[in-house]
Design a protein that fits this description.
19 helices, Helix-turn-helix domain-containing protein, PucR_C-HTH_dom
Length: 534
């Protein structure tokens, strides 16, 4: 991607060029955050962010280091970005200097830059149409803003911001947060959902007026963008109040033009996602060409873990929105130069992340995986983390482990919304044994079925009593504690069940066989673990 296209895609509300001695057609690469001590990994063409750097001497040292290593551009905030000495030095060094607006948070700038760079697709995908379309969408947003005489954002059906107009001074806090994060804030989105705005976007074609209810926001006029009965997105304008019918109608007419742009963009995005999905699936299933696909995905130095995320929503459209939201969040992992490869395969969102990031918070603080769980609202998605993969071939095994763990979460065998395979491997083993046993129909072999039938006919508790006794290796006190009954009650039950069916429990093979059968009954069902109680 060229610096010119990058600046045009992000927009002047966040970035503005200060000087470009060789023009803005120069290509740019990844995003690099300059460390205070000057130690940072830099490749030719990378964009260097001088985070929290305001001192002239520090700016000059960083500029010199960037020029010596052929950086693509240096991004600074005022006063360093507009310091005459710094600008002169940048011009002399032939290094583009870009000013970051003061209100833009550095974390948000990193997210924006990586989102735009990602729109170019992966190096060999050959799908540059999406990035090229971004500039047209920004121009369209400005044109629509002129029609409605209000600041405008164009969003896709998952509330991701695709483009926005000028007229920042007439916006509100939610608009600034939306532009900076390229996504409508979760609390504002929740407000719109409660008031049925998204339902109306899916059903209506005319303008929708949304009063200001959330503190810090102004009223909105929303126009759905449809094509062939499909919702492509929406156009949002910040208005001071109800809009005259004539102007609202003119605003609604712009949806047809926006639909054409979004159709073109979606076609390019679908091709890009298809290529990405194919590469990720090749790596995760260990297929032929996995090593080459891993190289193209940037997987050069492990270890990694595979994350599998399953959404829990019965509505198909809402489930698709949630999957896309999770995919977006997973693809835009903050805090690392690596943009983790992520794809939706078979209704599951998979991601390949550095092993050290795939952990849950231990000190009560926020963590990336915890944030991912809350990305879609309620119910939270199920997040399963596979085992450690030290090499590319190991990723297929990590994916299998993530799938096994997700299966436990879905069936309720683990009463949680997230789990790491390393912590639940024993339950995974029992689940596989139970499935094999069910396939071999071993639960119907021997005298156990007779005891099951007696319990069902007479309301007795022979099966759970036997299971607890076997699990505790014949210890009546431990077995009674497991069932929350008195040890004498347990002894009485054990004598009674022997009257129902003869069980030579002094035979170790009989005990092992019974325990396997009971394990198969407990872990083999699809509705969750069978609960044994008093």
């Amino acid at each position: 991607m060229s610096l010119q296209r990058l600046l045009g895609s992000v927009g002047p509300a966040v970035l503005s060029g200060v000087c470009a001695p060789k023009g803005t057609a120069v290509p740019v690469g990844d995003v690099v955050i300059a460390e205070p001590d000057g130690g940072f990994d830099l490749r030719p063409g990378d964009l260097v962010l001088g985070v929290n750097l305001t001192d002239r001497s520090q700016a000059l040292r960083l500029l010199s280091a960037c020029a010596a290593r052929s950086a693509g551009a240096l991004l600074l905030k005022a006063p360093a970005a507009v310091d005459e000495t710094v600008v002169t030095a940048a011009s002399a060094a032939g290094l583009p200097l870009v000013q970051v607006e003061q209100q833009a948070g550095w974390a948000q700038v990193v997210s924006l830059l990586r989102a735009v760079l990602d729109s170019e697709g992966y190096a060999d995908s050959g799908t540059g149409a999406v990035g090229a379309e971004a500039g047209d969408l920004f121009g369209l947003a400005d044109a629509i803003a002129a029609v409605i005489d209000a600041p405008v954002t164009i969003e896709d059906r998952s509330s991701r911001v695709l483009a926005y107009s000028a007229r920042q001074e007439r916006g509100d806090e939610a608009r600034v947060a939306t532009i900076m994060g390229r996504h409508v804030p979760d609390d504002v989105n929740a407000h719109f959902r409660r008031h049925g705005v998204f339902r109306r976007i899916a059903q209506d074609t005319g303008p929708i007026y949304v009063p200001a209810v959330v503190e810090g926001t102004k009223p909105r006029l929303v126009v759905p963008v449809h094509a062939g009965g499909d919702v492509l997105g929406s156009i949002w304008a910040i208005v001071p109040g109800p809009v005259p019918a004539e102007r609202a109608e003119a605003f609604a007419d712009t949806a047809a033009v926006a639909a054409l742009h979004l159709l073109r963009r979606r076609a390019g995005a679908d091709v890009e996602r298809l290529v990405l999905t194919d590469m990720v699936a090749t790596v995760l299933h260990g297929q032929e060409g996995a090593a080459d696909a891993a190289r193209r995905l940037g997987l050069t130095a492990g270890p990694w873990r595979v994350i599998a995320v399953g959404v829990r929503c019965e509505d198909d459209e809402e489930a698709e929105r949630q999957r896309l939201t999770v995919w977006e969040r997973m693809s835009r992992f903050r805090g690392s130069r690596l943009r983790p490869p992520a794809a939706i395969v078979g209704g599951v969102v998979y991601g390949i992340v550095p092993a050290e990031t795939a952990t849950w918070p231990t000190d009560g603080g926020p963590a990336w995986l915890e944030t991912l769980c809350g990305a879609t609202g309620r119910p939270a998605p199920l997040v399963a983390v596979g085992g450690l993969a030290a090499s590319v071939p190991g990723l297929a095994r990590s994916r299998e482990q993530a799938d096994d763990t997700l299966d436990l979460l879905r069936t309720g065998l683990i009463a949680s919304a997230q789990a790491v395979h390393d912590d639940v491997w024993a339950t995974v083993v029992l689940r596989h044994v139970a499935r094999s046993a069910a396939a071999a129909r071993i639960t119907g072999v021997g005298p156990l079925q007779q005891l099951v039938d007696h319990d069902e006919a007479h309301g007795t508790s022979g099966v759970p009593t036997l299971h607890a006794w076997l699990l505790e290796m014949g210890d009546p006190r431990a077995a009674a504690a497991r069932l929350h009954i008195h040890p004498n009650t347990l002894r009485h039950r054990m004598r009674r069940l022997q009257d129902v069916v003869a069980l030579p429990l002094d035979d170790p093979q009989v005990r092992t066989a019974l325990l396997l059968q009971l394990t198969a009954r407990q872990y083999g069902g699809e509705a969750g673990a069978e609960t044994y109680s008093a």
